[in-house]
Design goal:
- The protein has about 270 residues and is α/β, with parallel strands linked by helices.
- The protein has one domain: Phosphoglycerate mutase-like (Rossmann fold, 3-Layer(aba) Sandwich).
- Helix content is about 30%, strand content about 20%.
- The protein is built from six helices and seven strands; from the N terminus they run βααβαβαβαβαββ.
- It has a seven-stranded mixed beta sheet with strand order 3-2-4-1-6-7-5, with helices on both faces.
- Helix 2 packs parallel to helix 3.
- It is globular and about 55 Å long.
- The protein starts with a strand and ends in a 46-residue tail after the last strand.
Length: about 270
């Protein structure tokens, strides 16, 4: 099974340099352009036949996942539900939430511990992702997309690697993929890690562990953002207004006064 580990689009707090783990920071206008580019790219990739979309339940991730699902339905006629999981939330920075990076080191005494994040990730792997892999042991055509957050995705990736059989991690012969074996991967906004997860053999009834094999193809892939520039004047960094209409919407035939809100989107 193909697996995509995707970071959400740019948010207002990302631009402001604010600790925003559990804060439900809004996507910027530029962030919406990013997720639309990502959604279109994934729909065009014929090798990535999306079948499952899992997301953090924070809106910056949900909006990113929903953009992917919408484009899959429009371009590929795939009706894929977005399944939200609290386990995929970003690290909670405690009393540092909302503070600027320079004003704090992100190590408040009440911030979430690495052990807590790993426990959440392990619960997600055990209850949702690994059963999916074991139920599709020979499926090399389906893809599962997981939309989450920069820190949490790193924890998820390392926990997944820890489940792989000895010698079972391989990488494509490119610097990006090879770096994933040396240091934890990094995710830009809407960047994604692409890998395949497969079974290496049968699972014994008395053994709950899975003989997994992991092949990393791309790390922090952001090819869909090529030539995308942020609107000047601070507009691109501002919170996205879902009531804003595109220029083309003014030329849609029909009585404009009766145009429904769902026909309106960002420019």
């Amino acid at each position: 099974m193909h697996l995509l580990l995707i970071r959400h689009g740019e948010t207002v707090d990302n631009v402001a340099g604010i600790y925003a783990g559990s804060r439900d920071s809004a996507l910027t206008s530029h962030g919406v352009l990013q997720i639309r580019r990502l959604a279109a790219y994934l729909a065009e990739e014929q090798e990535l036949a999306l079948k499952f979309i899992f997301s953090s339940d924070l809106q910056r991730a949900v909006k990113t996942a929903e953009a992917i699902a919408t484009e899959q339905k429009r371009a590929c006629s795939r009706d894929i539900p977005v399944v939200e999981f609290a386990e995929l939330r970003e690290k909670d920075f405690g009393s540092d939430e909302g503070m600027k990076f320079g004003d704090s080191r992100g190590r408040a005494p009440d911030s979430e511990t690495p052990e807590s994040m790993k426990a959440r990730v392990d619960a997600f792997l055990d209850k949702h992702l690994l059963p999916l892999v074991s139920s599709h042991p020979d499926d090399t055509s389906s893809t599962c997309a997981i939309v989450s957050h920069g820190i949490l995705l790193g924890v998820l990736y390392r926990s997944l690697c820890a489940r792989v059989s000895r010698g079972g991690i391989t990488v494509d012969p490119n610097p990006s993929a090879a770096s994933s074996l040396i240091s934890p991967p990094f995710w830009d906004n809407t960047g994604f890690l692409e890998c395949t997860v497969s079974m290496t053999g049968a699972v014994a009834d008395e053994d709950k562990s899975l003989p997994l094999k992991l092949h990393v193809r791309r790390v922090n892939c952001a090819i869909h953002l090529r030539d995308l520039k942020k609107t000047r004047g601070g507009i691109g960094s501002a919170a996205f207004d879902e009531k804003q209409r595109t220029l083309t919407s003014f030329f849609v035939p029909g009585p404009s006064k009766k145009r429904k809100s769902q026909d309106m989107s960002a420019g």
